[in-house]
Amino acid sequence: MSPVSKFGQTHSLRRLPVQERSAARVRRMLDAAADLIEEVGYDRLSTTAIAQRADVAIGSVYQFFGDKRSLAEALSQRYIDLYFERLAARFDAEPPADWRAGVEAAIAEYVHMYRTAPGFRVLHLADAIDPGRADAVTTGGDVIAEQILAGLAQRFGIGGDDELGKTVTVAVETGQALVRLAFRRDPEGCAASIAEANGVVCDYLARRLP
């Protein structure tokens, strides 16, 4: 695997690192951004603090990122990539019997990210991204919905059209909001709220899926 592929097909880097040394430096910056977002929040995040935490020159930050927004965008994309890597591994190890089981697994992995990935619950997968920028990922939910549509076709033979795409997008955004609520109620995730998220999303998708 090349260093480039670690940053996903959609990225906000000014330029992609070609050498492993540069890729490692970018990974340190993203790690630092994640830890600082967890500690102080997005609003108080600064490129200076990121450079200090990552032990790189401030010029290195601007070499790859235009500002803290593009850093948050790249971090969100990294987490989206990690989320689907984990979900694919879970499906390969224990293929879901039907799409409802797939939804349960998808929400479980999202909950796992909330519990373990620094800054994840603050970012909410690309909430910090400016939707007005034409070259930016609009929301993490849009990217997740697109991947789920592909997964429905590949794993369950369920083809999609524009209406199904809208349905899946609403289901993803609803699931994200309910998981967020679960972690507002309990720092470890309210079990009843997570169960409710599964039920609500499945009931909504059942309107369009067999």
UniProtKB/TrEMBL annotation:
Pfam families cross-referenced by the UniProt entry: TetR_C_22, TetR_N
Chain residues forming the annotated DNA-binding region: 46-65
Gene3D superfamilies: Tetracycline Repressor, domain 2 (1.10.357.10)
Presence of the UniProt keyword Isomerase in the record: no
Signal peptide (residue range): none
GO molecular function, one term: DNA-binding transcription factor activity
Keywords attached to this entry: DNA-binding, Transcription, Transcription regulation
Residue intervals of the HTH tetR-type domain: 23-83
Lineage: Bacteria, Bacillati, Actinomycetota, Actinomycetes, Glycomycetales
The organism of origin for this protein: Glycomyces albidus
TM helices/strands, residue ranges: none
Entry protein name: TetR family transcriptional regulator
